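Worked example 2:
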Amino acid sequence: MTASLRALLARAIDYAGLFPPANMALEPALQNYADYIRTADDWMLGAFILPVAEFGAAARGLSQFDTDHPLRISALGPKTDNAEAFQASLAGAMDSIASFRMMYGAAAVIEQFEMPLPANISADTFRMIRATIDSGLRTFWEAPAEAAERTIKSIADNNRSHAGGKLGFKLRTGGVTASAFPSSAEIAVALMAAGTHQVPIKFTAGLHHPVRIFHQSVQTTMHGFLNVLGAGVLGLEHDWTEKQFVEMLDDEEAASFSLTEDSFAWRDWRVATKRVAAHRELVTSLGSCSFDEPREDLRALNLL
């Protein structure tokens, strides 16, 4: 493992074993996470994606975690149909998080919160979010790919109005059907907007493999996490155009990528390892229902 790989993937893979296509039950998913944090690959592992509605059930499985090996949680709020339901669900989620922290804070640490936004958001939506959320939580707000640029701009406007932590954006990059995968151009637009407006961005779904590849299970080409995270980092470093982002996101050749002690590179584009780590403040993480597949593929490429 090289220093640039570690910089690019440190705490990058949030474990979403409860979600498709894995669809694991809570108990074995928690057991997996408890096992993963005791492996040499723990440095890659981010938070456990846990719906707020599952807090009570999860509390019964905390005996395998402690202050040295905590359950790091990204709490997931529910999808809602309108602004009123969104506000009520968000307030309820914050109450649940506060209660959970009081009872289980030593063994389970809630690090971040993510939630789908309702349709037809406005500036008032983000003012309400800011007034409701725990200011100590890192947060990511999901919107469809076609609304990414507009949503990121709204988030940025709100961030500029507040001295507290930045709200972030969450982009869905796949699913269990071909139609769930956004195009490379749509991902490029989101990455460009996040960089332009300095809004942290995370990704979820479909990023099981390091390099873009056609997969029979979904009958479409799945995006690679080296493509997506790498394009985010290189694009920030070199102020890429949309065309340059798309070229990297579309690349299916593992040989195009180079990860050395000193730098991460794609074709002739290069970024120093210390700069990779700095750009990861904005290009933050990805949710994956598997922590094994990404590692197996990295080993197959002799990168891990």
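The chain is about 40% helix and 20% strand. The radius of gyration is 18 Å.
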